[in-house]
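Final report, Chapter 2: Outcomes

The project's central promise was a pipeline that accepts a single protein chain and returns its three-dimensional structure in a standardized token representation, suitable for archiving and comparison. That pipeline is now operational. To close this chapter, we reproduce one record exactly as it appears in the project archive, with the input sequence first and the structure output second.
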Amino acid sequence: MNLPEEKQKVETQLRQLQNRQKILLNKKANAERRERTHRLIERGAILESAFPAVAAMTGEQVKAFLLSLSRLPGAGEAAGKSAKTGNAR
């Protein structure tokens, strides 16, 4: 095999590997997006089951509600304790 042919072959392999890398990165991003979406839906369902009134609220109202809950005495400690022990539900 002469030098130009070998160069062409290596360049083709490089393009194939770069395309494969793009495909793998896209798969990883899609998997991360699916995991996040699942987590958000699951936590939203937990929120609605604990506080049924939030189902009728707008996003801003839910945010204000959660912020007001977070300001209650002991809320930060309870959240931290739940996160450490795994009792977030």
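Archive annotation: The two ends are 65 Å apart (CA to CA).
This record, like all others produced under the grant, will remain available to the consortium after the project formally closes.
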